[in-house]
Write the structure tokens for this entry.
Amino acid sequence: MSVEGERNERREAIFKWNEQAEAFVDRYLKMQDDELAKCFCAEVRKKVRPKLDYLALTDATKQILIAASVPYVTLDELSKQTKIGVFLMQVTEETKLSRLERVSSKIVHVLSLFEEEANDE
């Protein structure tokens, strides 16, 4: 089974991406509002897997993990980890993971704060 196939089976999103979510995240990113990050915390804590440290690829996701008291690692700390989760702001950020070949074998869970809604055309 390919890593990409495994990743899709382990991927989970908490919220759907829509105009309200976009405005919320835009405000969060521009203002770096820790109080706004706390709005997500309860849901993030429910979805993280126990005994995993989550890789935060951006400062925004790192802030949410800190606010939610979820253990996290940075790329330079990965050599110490055997299994990790990855926390993304949006599912579309998963393309960044494909460039991190040394990480893919350690990923056991990918959690996205938002998943884009399917457009019915």
